[in-house]
Every structure is written in C-alpha cells, then in structure tokens.
Design a protein that fits this description.
By secondary structure, the chain is mostly helical. Helix 3 runs antiparallel to helix 12, helix 6 runs antiparallel to helix 10 and helix 9 packs antiparallel against helix 14. The chain starts with about 20 loop residues before the first helix and ends in a 7-residue tail after the last helix.
Length: about 375
C-alpha cells in the first residue's frame, strides 16, 4: 500500500512482506489429529482429559505445564511483537529476512532430529547427507503448503497493519471453522451436531468483536473516518483470506501426513517444508534489498525471529507430550493475554463487547474440542 493510505500510527513508507506463526499452529494441530478418533468413536470426556492432565506423574505434569506455558507465551507474543515492531517502533527491516532466518533454524533442528530420531520413515538408512538428499528429491508435495504459507504470511501482515493484535488473534480462531468446512468437503467427514453448534457460536463471537472493533461512523464528508473504515475492512478481508487458506492447507497437510503410500516423520516433513520455504524466501529477501538483505535489523527484529523460530521447537514438544485439551487451553489463554496486553501497551480496544466476544470465542473453541459424554 502507498504511504498515504497508512494509518497515522504506522510508518509513512512502504513496508515489506510479514511473517506469522500460523504455520506452527497448523502443523501441531494436524500432526496430533492423526491419533484422534472420529466422532463416532468419541468416548472420552473433557473431565477425563482434565483428570489425565492433573493426575499425571509429577515429572510429566511438570513437562506438560512448561510446554503449556511456553505455547501460551509464544502464541501471545507473535502478534504483539509484530504490532510493536512495525506500529510503535516503525522498524523497516525486511521481514522476508526474518522469515528466512526462522526457516533456516527450523531446517537445522529438523536435520538434527532426522539423524537422531528413531521415528518410522521411508528414508533409507545411511549417512546424514544421503538422508537429506533423499528427502529433498522426494519433497515436491511440500511445495504447495510452502507457497500457501507465504500467502498467509503476507495476508497476516496486511491484517495486522489495519486491525489491532487482539482482534487479529480472535479472528484467527475462525481457522477452526474453515478447517472443519474443508474437512467435510474434501475428506467427506461427518461432524457431530455439537461441533456445528460450537462453530456457530464461534462465528457469532467473531462477528461481535469485529463489529465492536470497527471504526465508529462519522459525519458525512469526513474523509479521515472514511479512510479508517476502508482500512479496517481491508484488514478484516486479509484476515478472512488468511483463515480460509489456513483451513485449506490444514486439510492438505493432513492428507500428506496420513498418506498410505509413503511414511515420513514430522521431522522429515518439516525439513522438506523448510527447504522449499528457504527457496521461496531467499529471492524475496534479495529483491527487498539486493545489496544489504539484512539492512535495518535491530534487537527487536532478532526477537521476532526468535519468537517465530521457537514455535518450531514447540511443535515437536507438543506432539510428543501435549493433547487436544492442552492445545485448547493454550489457544484460549493466548486470546486472554493478547487482549489484555494489547489494551495495556498498544492502546487496543478493551470494552465490554470485546470481552464478551472473546469469552464466546474461547467457550466455542472448548466446546468444539469437547468429545462429549461417554456412550452408555
């Protein structure tokens, strides 16, 4: 967008493409979904899951609590840090460089795990280089999600430029709705009626928050108010595009992970995805600044890269130790902290409708992940 179209709280110069951590959340949710039963086999209850969480062994409980806290902090920070860096500090570093650093870190971690992990995989035994070469030559299926994640990163940045971090975090929960729709359309799944009710209340909560966050109407002829309203609609549209792509890539990635013709571990897939992402982000970074791709980097830019890169580690830990209940707690906890911190430090809205809408969204997410009462 041209500088003249930016809100006053944003820098008056063109900004680069952004990054999001949505990739991390999607991979975590989809990999875990491999072990979750269908609705017709849902026999556990929320209370049972709570009992398992609270009654686990002391060591395991400590690990899960640590992971839970880390996921909440990371999910909260990823939106607030971007908003602070671009909105308050008005930093001008190329965010494609931040994306590249994050992907290089994920690829390095995955490369290490491929050599040390004993997870089932079709990768032939041999040296580390031979394993990496095999994965790269068989990674074409991961090109699609890599491209989609690029589009999601850009849309997420546009959305955060025009709407506050709390509204963005809550709107992002509509990915539950889009993922469910794509699972019904593409995978012919059948959702229980209680899940459809949860999706309905989720949508209503998001609509309530969006309406409250909308710029107030002004007198006719007020060009500034009209511009603010247009920018808000652009931010909402970008967020909608983000969650639609999120739902699609979730189902696509799930089909890849559940493929019966080939077996790859989550580290194998992360390595392949990082490979294609690096190939995509590198030319974008060079295009942004051919002579100095990392020009404008600041301590806050390093924080952004670190926060995003931490998500890759949390994916693996969550897959190993966490469950759907912990994912729900982390999601709702992130909404709470994002809303509060956004209001306290970034002048975000904090009205009764915003709080009520956030509660509705959190309850809806919990209800959607509730597996119902056990069969008698």
């Amino acid at each position: 967008p041209r500088a003249s179209l930016l809100p006053r709280s944003w820098p008056q110069h063109a900004m680069k493409a952004s990054y999001t951590n949505v990739e991390t959340e999607e991979k975590e949710e989809l990999v875990r979904s491999e072990g979750e039963p269908d609705d017709r086999r849902e026999t556990s209850t929320s209370s049972t899951c709570w009992s398992q969480l609270c009654c686990a062994g002391g060591g395991l409980l400590g690990i899960r609590a640590c992971i839970l806290g880390s996921v909440v902090v990371q999910n909260t920070a990823y939106a607030l840090v971007r908003r602070y860096s671009r909105g308050a500090l008005r930093e001008t570093y190329s965010t494609s460089s931040v994306l590249l650093v994050m992907e290089v870190a994920k690829m390095a971690l995955s490369a290490f795990q491929i050599v040390t992990s004993d997870a089932p995989s079709d990768v032939p035994s041999g040296s580390a280089l031979s394993k990496y070469a095999y994965l790269i030559t068989h990674s074409l299926t991961m090109l699609v999600p890599a491209v989609v994640y690029l589009a999601m990163n850009i849309l997420g940045f546009v959305s955060l430029k025009y709407i506050d971090a709390a509204t963005f975090a809550i709107l992002a929960q509509m990915k539950v709705f889009t993922t469910a729709i794509f699972s019904v359309v593409l995978l012919q799944r059948k959702l229980h009626l209680r899940k459809w009710r949860a999706l309905l209340t989720l949508t209503l909560g998001v609509v309530l928050i969006s309406h409250e966050a909308m710029p107030k109407s002004a007198a006719a002829g007020d060009s500034r108010a009209k511009l603010a309203f247009a920018e808000f609609l652009l931010g909402i549209a970008a967020s909608v595009g983000d969650v639609v792509l999120s739902g699609f890539v979730s189902i696509y990635f799930e089909k890849v992970l559940k493929s019966k013709t080939e077996t790859y571990s989550v580290w194998d897939r992360n390595f392949q995805l990082a490979f294609w992402s690096i190939l995509i982000y590198t030319p974008i970074m060079i295009h942004d600044n051919p002579r100095q791709p990392f020009a404008g980097w600041t301590p806050m830019a390093a924080v952004c890269a670190a926060v995003g890169g931490t998500g890759g580690v949390l994916v693996a830990l969550s897959i190993k130790y966490a469950d759907s209940i912990m994912k729900t707690i982390a999601t709702t906890g992130a909404i709470v902290f994002t809303t509060i911190l956004n209001a306290a430090f970034l002048d975000g809205p904090f009205t009764l409708p915003i709080v009520a809408g956030a509660v509705v969204v959190m309850v809806s997410v919990c209800n959607y992940n509730d597996r119902g009462d056990p069969e008698s």
